[in-house]
Specification:
Order of helices and strands: HHHHHHHHHHHH
Low-confidence stretches: 342-347
Structural class: mainly alpha
Subcellular location: Cell membrane
Helix content: over 70%
Mean pLDDT: 81
Largest sheet: none
Transmembrane segments: 35-52, 73-93, 113-138, 159-178, 198-216, 223-242, 248-267, 288-307, 313-334
Keywords: Cell membrane, Membrane, Transmembrane, Transmembrane helix
Protein name: Polysaccharide biosynthesis protein
Membrane topology: Multi-pass membrane protein
Distance between the termini: 19 Å
């Protein structure tokens, strides 16, 4: 998890440094992200080799002298993998195809405005998903390997009860500081895209929750459960963007992507319902919603009271204040799960 956080932080800092030091161009921003990933990636490779000490010798000494993979095992692998590949492709259609649709109907300038705001949310949600998966993912898969098949459902439930409330709180946090995010991260031409940050936060929370439910299919070794939710999300996104954007413009696009994500999430819930016991903690979800509303209140109070001076430092100050409270709220939500080795409290 430390390397994941270091990757995101190094990429962000290097991207900012290159943009401010050379030119505010996309190539410098992307170059900073790439360099940050390479630097921390090399560090991760060094840590990996250090832990294994002599990985090549270890691999050779433990590998059987003669190993074959049966056709039956290959068939099982194919049956597990092809629905995942199809679901990933459909997920791309749901989340990215609108860009091609809008280029023809609304033009590149409007598309850029929408993508700038929506992309902030999707990037932040993706970073959150990467960090929690890095921490809770190994716990989840370890429990799958250490327990009988009939207990795999409880492993998924504990994972979902840790991640989904935390995901909801992250969405509230992004919404609370949406205007500040556009002022900090975007240029003057794109700083009116705060509303699209909000649309993106809601849509990406729902879409990422679909990924959490996808692990339920992994737990049951039935990845075909992924096809219908992702197919529904892709079809809804294509149809609704084409239908709503001519009348409602970019607001219609945001609504279309949100409805597509919610439809995909509902289909995921229904698909898993008949194959895995679903008992999410209503208490944790209510906690997340109340804490999220508190973040909205704090952001509104700080902005209304004008206790901070205007300009970039004003926006940065609000983001820092709300961010510190957000981190404390996340710690409160996840304390029981982090304090114990796994979500069930088993050491």
């Amino acid at each position: 998890m430390a390397l994941t956080i270091a990757t995101n932080l190094a990429s962000l800092l290097l991207a900012i440094a290159l943009v401010l030091g050379f030119s505010r161009g996309a190539q410098f921003w992307l170059s900073g992200i790439l360099v940050g990933q390479i630097v921390v990636g090399m560090l991760g490779l060094w840590v990996f080799y250090k832990k294994l000490k002599n990985p090549l010798h270890t691999f050779i000494s433990k590998a059987p002298q003669r190993s074959t993979i049966s056709s039956r095992a290959l068939l099982r692998l194919f049956q597990f993998a092809w629905p995942i590949a199809l679901a990933v492709g459909l997920g791309w259609v749901q989340s990215q195809a609108y860009r091609y649709q809008l280029t023809a109907s609304l033009g590149l300038s409007q598309l850029g405005l929408f993508v700038a705001g929506f992309g902030i949310s999707s990037g932040l949600i993706a970073g959150f998903d990467s960090m929690v998966t890095t921490y809770f993912g190994p716990i989840f898969y370890r429990r799958l390997s250490d327990t009988e098949d009939q207990h795999h459902g409880s492993a998924w439930q504990d994972y979902a009860n840790a991640v989904i409330p935390s995901l909801i709180l992250t969405g509230f946090f992004i919404i609370a500081i949406a205007p500040e995010l556009t002022k900090i991260l975007l240029g003057p031409l794109f700083q009116e895209s705060g509303i699209y940050v909000i649309w993106g936060a809601m849509a990406e929370v729902a879409r990422t929750a679909v990924g959490v439910y996808a692990l339920g299919a992994h737990a049951r070794m039935n990845t075909r459960l992924l096809i219908v939710p992702n197919l529904l999300g892709a079809v809804l996104a294509l149809i609704l963007v084409q239908t709503l954007s001519p009348t409602y413009g970019l607001q219609g696009v945001g609504a279309a992507l949100l409805i597509a994500s919610l439809g995909s999430l509902l289909a995921s819930i229904m698909s898993n319902k008949n194959h895995i016991v679903v008992t999410l903690s209503l208490k944790q979800i209510i906690k997340a919603i109340l804490l999220g509303c508190f973040l909205l209140l704090i952001a509104g109070v700080v902005a209304y009271s004008k206790i901070l001076q205007g300009g970039i430092f004003y926006s940065f100050g609000i983001a820092v204040i709300v961010g510190i409270i957000f981190l404390g709220a996340q710690w409160y939500l996840l304390y029981d799960y982090i304090a114990n080795d796994d979500p069930r409290g088993q050491k």
